[in-house]
Amino acid sequence: MFANIIIISILVFHGASYMFGRALTSILWGMVADRFGRKPVIVVGIFTGLVFNTLFGLSVHYWMAIATRFLLGSFNGLLGPIRAYVVEVCRPEHQAIGLSLVSTAWAMGLIIGPAIGGYLAQPTEKYPKLFPTKTIFERFPYFLSSLCISIFYFIILLSCVWLPETLHSHKYKSTEDQSNESLIQQLADSEDFDEQKNSSSTNKSILKNWPLMSSIILFCIVSFDDMAYTEIFPLWVESERRLGGLSLSSDDVGQVLAITGATILLYQTFVYPHIVKLLGPIITTRIMTIFSMALLITYPFIAHLLEPWLSIVLNIASMIKANCIVTAVTCSFILQNNSVSQEQRATANGLATTLMSFSKAIAPAGAGIVFSWAQKHQHVLFFQGGQMVFLLLDIVIFVELIWTFKPFLVFPEDVTS
């Protein structure tokens, strides 16, 4: 028991060090991207990811692993600039599919990353014929998985050579021709331009931009729900039936997550853009939130099913839940990026990443405590352990639904128009 507590504590500190480092510097990297461009920040983030990820695989002490993960998070300023980059490189009618691809890549990374770590960790024990003993892979049992990810980093770094800068794309330059200068002058003399200028000046302070801040809060609530569910789902699936679980193996969990990841790719690419185009990001979020709440109510009853219905229903439930979460996340991206001007977009996304990192750092600990408590309360009359876990998740999602209405969520003008 004591050994399990130590292992869990190590994993928590290991994951939290990355989130803590990213939370401290995301706003700074966003400001740098707004000042010097998106491409430099993206290149620095990929290069430092390559370096610190490789050093993590070569760690021989616990403090070295924690330090490299912290530095990896600190120099990872990619999320904010990439979301800003996608909005600027896509036409307005294509922004939904652009941001959906960002969410899809993130979701696929959550599936593929753990799979690489699981299959390639300790290769001398799993694949002794390919990786004999007394080699670097025996001394550093996690170097192979880190090396594969670093190779992927290197390929992406090379592809950045052809990545165009977008920060200047929508700005007027002093070298433009005389006709454009006269047009700008005419706009400057008009009342509409004055009103727009005054409106933009009032939004110079990001913290006072309530459409932005309300959409970031929505993003944090969705992220908390996502991280808590991600923590609870495998624990629930692998726990014994007498404790309200499904008594499945870790291989079964991996199979479910792999199928779910594939559906996210298909849904976000071919279905989500059409839904948002038809309903808009706000109504889409509300509908998906209601679906998610209704779905979680059925989870305790899934534990009473037997094969093959258990696997079928579990896969369907996992697919629907994951796509509901990714939909809400992508819709919040659209709201955030339509709430600020271009010169503040990366900073705004950096602020969202910082607050999201704190939210995701709290969620696993809270979810773990709730699940441990639920395991000890399986024989009460009302709201047994498994039911209580999903009830509490439903409460979080209900708060998320309430936040999509006024006066909590203030809609950006681009979205309401």
TrEMBL record:
It is a multi-pass membrane protein. The keyword RNA-binding does not apply. Pfam families: MFS_1. SUPFAM superfamilies: MFS general substrate transporter. InterPro entries: MFS, MFS_dom, MFS_trans_sf. The chain crosses the membrane at residues 6-29, 41-64, 70-87, 99-120, 140-163, 256-275, 287-306, 312-335, 355-374, 380-403. Keywords: Membrane, Transmembrane, Transmembrane helix, Transport. The keyword Cytoplasm does not apply. Coiled coil: none annotated. One of its GO terms (cellular component) is membrane. It comes from the Eukaryota. Residues 1-403 form the Major facilitator superfamily (MFS) profile domain. It is found in: Membrane. Its main location: membrane. This is Major facilitator superfamily (MFS) profile domain-containing protein.
